Amino acid sequence: MKIISKILFLAVLTCLLYFNIQFWHFQPVGWLIFLVFLLATSGGWQAVMVKIFNFSDNKITKILSLFLNLIIIGWFSGATIVFYRLTSEVILFIFLLSGALSIFVEYIIRKKFNYEKNSNTIDSLDVHDETIVQIPQNYLYLIAYLIFFVVGIIILCSSRSGGSVNTPWEVIAHNFIYIFFLATLTVGGLIFSHYRLPILIFLLILNSFLLHSYLPLTHPMFYGADNWRHLAAEKQILAEQKFSPQVFVVGEPTLAQTVNPGRFAYSQFWGTTVILSRVMQVDLISVNVWLMPILWPIIFTLLLFKLGMSLGWSAKRSLFLVWLSSWPFALQAAGAFTLPVNYGFLVWLLLLLMIIKRFQKNKTGQVVFLAAVGIFSIFGYLLFFVLFWFGWLAAEILRSGQNIISTSVKRIGMTALILLSVAVLPVLELVAKFSFFNPNINWLASLRQVVGNFSAYYLASGPRPHLINTGNVFFNQTPSYVFVQNGFTEWRWWLFGVMALAIIGIVIGFWRRWNDNSLVSKWLIIMSSGTLGGYVISRYFLSGENILTRRLDVVLALFLLILLFSAIVKILDGNRRTIFLIVLAAAAISASYTLGPVAKTVSQDEYQAMEYIWQQEQATKNYCVVADTYPLLALEAISGKQIIGGGFPIDEYFSQPKLNNIYGYYLENLSSQARMESRKINSAENCYVLLPTQLYRQKYSLIPESMPEVKVFGTVSVLEYN
């Protein structure tokens, strides 16, 4: 009877959800139904984590089961996007299917394992006594942190801008970073206090939110270009259209261009954002601005804490690992940008934790579940699909070879696995023609670049005048044109010293893991070697787009952080060395924080101008819009991919040299030549040009005989030529 009542409740809940999507459109009802659905249908996934993968049955696992529930909904919606359309009826079916599957899984596990959920609290974990506690439980420390947090949020909100900026640090008040440093330093110290585990985890989540919310709090639009492209696809899906990905090919298409893995790689992310938008009645821009800054502080904090515990570290030391994860710039950026790669990283991290749990205890059902989620991972980010399957394969090889007696055979096998892990990603890129070997490569210069990037030498001796896209793992190598100086970065050679210590620590951590005979340590050696080796080979010694390894920074940051922590974990004993480490790490975190991201925004004026152009031209088929890249990306999103690149040709690398030349003519006031060039390329009846209002008033007002119709939107103006 219990299972029947659950199915009936699921049916009622999904019907209410459908009516709100289709007819009511009431936001509070959407939020309530969605939260109740996640809570009511996560029991099966919690049972899988507890009984199949040996997670502790507590509130942390409950929260992670809610995330797993969301992941499965995303996979189902991703499959729908690839093969059909995401209509209201399909969303109803997806929720019914995922809910029924969870109920069925819970029923099977309950019968097979005699599973009963308990009500353990978050601190019911197996936490042994700590010998590193030094700070007494004084609520003044807690109050001090909360003051720092509130003041930091207020400063970020007061720094909000609607203009076009190249980095958030152009608008963030200069005193914010010092408030952030004090907040981070306080939390780092409180880890070694007598405060209970739930309070410490809550403080880490708050500080992570303070760290990652600086993008949405300082601008209403996106930082960077990628979100606009994804928003364009999401709007097409939201309109219940069949998504038809466009591939820009010059010459003979490659295997990757023919298969077009992008339609699979982004589908889970698109499905998740569109479903959240429809179910919770929130516009897509808000979902894409806020999803990761809200999700990351909770999920990444809990996953990394569980990962630290699974690697054998105590609760306090695992909490310090979470706190230290605020240092790598790659992890800072991942939690701030709502992008498929960053969402996919969280999904992969949960699956990685399950692989590690399998090392600890082999149980019936683990292989079936991992195989199922591995197959559905095809609808997630391609990089993590590859990493999951290789990571699981390596784990199974290690498990099967643990009974080999011969030491030499084990060493040969370990070496072979490391070499294979290093080769996997570069070979895949070469086969798919994401990368290619350049016979004219300067090997010495590439090696010098590896050292300069990872050691922070280029950052310390710079900043350089150009953008550096490689090696931005712990510190972002900010170019001079967006560098905003503060007390932590005025003299930057100390960053070089910190990285030198970190590299020494990583080497020591690698050596300790190498000499550890546990399977988990061997697996970490294989994965970290493969990640670092594959990254260096592809990014420094191969040419091309490096589609897989160019997004590897966040994974590399995770594995290097674990190796570094393996070296320093033994000095976390609450003495003066620990205090020095906390102060130094808090300073490094704050310095890293202010070094990026380098990401431009579309101003609100530009966005309104693009909305106007779409209103004028949505009934036509041929388009001509001449503007800078970022406003055109906003137009692509506003039009739901109807106007791509302003209607001008785009090559396979998303560049538009012809449009750039025409735009240059307009900027130089050569309007007649610009119109003639645009007519050669584009057969549209009307052509719109977006120029800065100040430039338009200075130059175009001098030639009234060629004046077009003009619409002014604050700092930008739209010129319409018929």
Automatic annotation (TrEMBL):
<feature type="transmembrane region" description="Helical">
    <location>
        <begin position="287"/>
        <end position="307"/>
    </location>
</feature>
<feature type="transmembrane region" description="Helical">
    <location>
        <begin position="139"/>
        <end position="156"/>
    </location>
</feature>
<feature type="transmembrane region" description="Helical">
    <location>
        <begin position="90"/>
        <end position="109"/>
    </location>
</feature>
<feature type="transmembrane region" description="Helical">
    <location>
        <begin position="31"/>
        <end position="54"/>
    </location>
</feature>
<feature type="transmembrane region" description="Helical">
    <location>
        <begin position="554"/>
        <end position="572"/>
    </location>
</feature>
<feature type="transmembrane region" description="Helical">
    <location>
        <begin position="412"/>
        <end position="431"/>
    </location>
</feature>
<feature type="transmembrane region" description="Helical">
    <location>
        <begin position="491"/>
        <end position="511"/>
    </location>
</feature>
<keyword id="KW-1133">Transmembrane helix</keyword>
<keyword id="KW-0812">Transmembrane</keyword>
<feature type="transmembrane region" description="Helical">
    <location>
        <begin position="367"/>
        <end position="392"/>
    </location>
</feature>
<feature type="transmembrane region" description="Helical">
    <location>
        <begin position="176"/>
        <end position="192"/>
    </location>
</feature>
<feature type="transmembrane region" description="Helical">
    <location>
        <begin position="523"/>
        <end position="542"/>
    </location>
</feature>
<protein>
    <recommendedName>
        <fullName>Glycosyltransferase RgtA/B/C/D-like domain-containing protein</fullName>
    </recommendedName>
</protein>
<feature type="transmembrane region" description="Helical">
    <location>
        <begin position="343"/>
        <end position="360"/>
    </location>
</feature>
<feature type="transmembrane region" description="Helical">
    <location>
        <begin position="199"/>
        <end position="217"/>
    </location>
</feature>
<keyword id="KW-0472">Membrane</keyword>
<feature type="transmembrane region" description="Helical">
    <location>
        <begin position="66"/>
        <end position="84"/>
    </location>
</feature>
<feature type="transmembrane region" description="Helical">
    <location>
        <begin position="579"/>
        <end position="596"/>
    </location>
</feature>
<feature type="transmembrane region" description="Helical">
    <location>
        <begin position="7"/>
        <end position="25"/>
    </location>
</feature>
